[in-house]
Amino acid sequence: MKLSREEVLHISTLCRMSMSEAELERFQEQISNILENFEILKEVDTTDVPPTAYPIHMENIIREDKTAPCLPQSDILANAPHQEEGYFRVKAVLD
After folding, report:
1. Cα separation of 27 and 11, whole Å?
2. To pair with 74 at 20 to 30 A between CA atoms, which of 9, 10, 80, 92?
3. Judging by beta carbons within 10 Å of its beta carbon (0-12, 13-18, 19+), is residue 28 exposed, middle or buried?
4. What is the residue-level pLDDT of the chain in tens, covering all 95 positions?
5. Residue 33 is part of which domain span?
6. Shortest CA distance to 19 belongs to which of 31, 8, 4?
7. E strands in 1-95
8. 18 occurs within a structural domain
9. Which pTM does this prediction carry?
């Protein structure tokens, strides 16, 4: 499907893009090429192909959440530069 210069100009107006003459010619050729490829794809027989969201089967690979014992608070705070009443002490972020 070959697009005319006016159609490409209309598309650029819809996209709120200004184009030079060279850009118009380049985009006319590129968009026409894309549309021609879609015309070729329309010829492929897909009657026995079920609609899918993904071309390959996907599985959830995230592990199941399992509870585990926590580290003691003293071990967690052992390397903290500053601590106060069992918590990390940090500088104020907001005044």
Report:
1. 10
2. 92
3. buried
4. 789 999 999 999 999 999 999 999 999 999 999 999 999 999 999 888 888 887 788 788 888 889 999 999 999 999 999 999 989 999 888 87
5. 5-42
6. 8
7. 83-84, 87-88
8. yes
9. 0.49
Query: What is the domain count for the chain?
Result: 1
Give the integer Cα–Cα distance in Å for 86 and 33: 66
Residue 15 lies in a domain: yes
Residue 50 counted as domain residue: no
Q: How far apart are CA 74 and CA 83, in angstroms?
A: 11
What φ, ψ does residue 83 adopt, rounded to 5°?
-145, 155
What the block records as the tokens of 75 is 């071990």
The single residue listed with the structure tokens 């009443």 is 85
Residue keyed to tokens 């959830």: 60
